[in-house]
Specification:
The longest helix is centred in the C-terminal third of the chain and has 15 residues, at about 220-235. With about 300 residues, this protein is α/β, with parallel strands linked by helices. It has a domain at about 1-100: Rossmann fold (3-Layer(aba) Sandwich), CATH 3.40.50. Helix 5 packs parallel to helix 6 (about 195-200). Helix content is about 30%, strand content about 20%. The chain has helices spanning about 15-25, 70-75, 95-100, 130-135, 170-180, 195-200, 220-235, 255-270, 285-295, 305-309, and strands at about 1-5, 30-35, 45-50, 65-70, 75-80, 80-85, 115, 120, 140, 155-160, 180-185, 205-215, 245-250, 270-275. The chain is globular. Strands 7-10-11-12-13-14 form a six-stranded parallel sheet. A four-stranded parallel sheet has the order 2-1-3-4. Strands 5-6 form a two-stranded antiparallel ribbon. Strand 5 and strand 6 (about 80-85) form a beta hairpin.
Length: about 300
């Protein structure tokens, strides 16, 4: 068969489902290519994958016997001003496709020496601003060993939503440590679940950088001491910016609470990364806070008031 692929987001960031679909079809002897309206001609099947709800849909005619759409971007609908994940509109990959080694040749530059994948899925938190619990389940569970998507690459990008919440996380962290590769936990690590035991293994992983989240003000009494604990036991604060902390704003916190979390990061020598929940309707002050933090000037301008002046 002739198979076409469309990465609707078009961000030049590797689309893991499409890489797995490509690998499976090639294993069946099918021809796989990126679909181009004027060049591809007729296809037996075209797969369209969309990760982000805000990405406009593909606008060109598709010449194919069957068009299959999938991804979180198609499953999220705006209802009464809120994004709602509709599970029935999402299409999980068949098991034989989900667990195949990805076709990294689709993104030769981005994956030249980098492996992408999930060791776990799901998250027990169920935060109102996040779709993971509805999409993958309100618990964290192992879905693969590292060897499923890594074969000696020097870099690993791990997309797990909450690996430390998985009962098997010590075993999985050890696999990452044993790989000797540089690891990027691109969805962050739940600092609320950091313990002396898992910290010992985390210290043995070659981290390209590490991300935490301080999104919920009500978690302050556990997040703040755990961030301090991580600093004291790892020494990761020696280089400014090596530790990044995601800070959700414009959801259920005040400006004062946002500034407190940002200044805590400054004290710890961690880089704050403020994220605006409702960008379309937010007060302009939130974008000013973002610019203050996401700029080299942050370390030279100790207060937001001084930055505004």
């Amino acid at each position: 068969m002739k198979i076409g692929l469309i990465d609707v987001d078009g961000h030049n960031y590797p689309n893991l489902p499409l890489m797995k679909i490509s690998a499976w079809h090639k294993s069946q002897g099918d021809h796989v290519e990126w679909y181009e309206p004027l060049l591809s001609g007729h296809c037996d099947k075209v797969y369209m994958s969309k990760v982000f709800s805000f990405t406009p849909d593909y606008e060109y005619f598709i010449d194919a016997d069957e068009v299959i759409k999938g991804g979180t971007g198609y499953a999220i609908q705006l209802i009464d001003g809120h994004e709602v994940y509709q599970k029935e509109k999402d299409k999980p990959l068949p098991e034989e496709v989900e667990h195949i080694y990805p076709d990294y040749s689709l993104y030769p530059e981005e994956t030249k020496d980098t492996a992408y994948g999930f060791l776990t899925r799901g998250c027990p938190r169920g935060c109102g601003f996040c779709h993971v619990a509805n999409k993958e389940g309100k618990c964290s569970y192992k879905v693969a060993d590292l060897s499923e998507f890594w074969r000696g690459q020097k870099h690993i990008v791990l997309c797990d939503p909450n690996i430390l919440a998985c009962p098997d996380h010590l075993e999985l962290l050890q696999q990452l440590a044993d790989s000797g590769a540089k690891v990027n936990f691109n969805q962050g690590i739940d600092v609320r679940l950091v313990t002396d035991r898992n910290l010992e293994i985390l210290k043995n992983i070659k981290l390209e950088g590490i991300h935490f989240a301080f999104d919920r003000w009500q978690d302050k009494d556990i997040v703040e001491p755990r961030l301090r604990m991580f600093k004291e036991k790892t020494g990761y604060d020696r280089n400014k910016g090596r530790v990044m902390v995601y800070i959700l704003m414009n959801y259920d916190t005040t400006i004062e609470q946002d500034i407190y979390r940002i200044q805590l990061c400054r004290e710890l020598n961690f880089s704050p990364y403020p994220m605006i929940y409702d960008k379309e309707h937010c007060d302009p002050i939130y974008r000013k806070i973002q610019r203050w933090c996401n700029n080299f000037i942050f370390w030279k301008t100790p207060t937001f008031e001084e930055y505004r002046r």
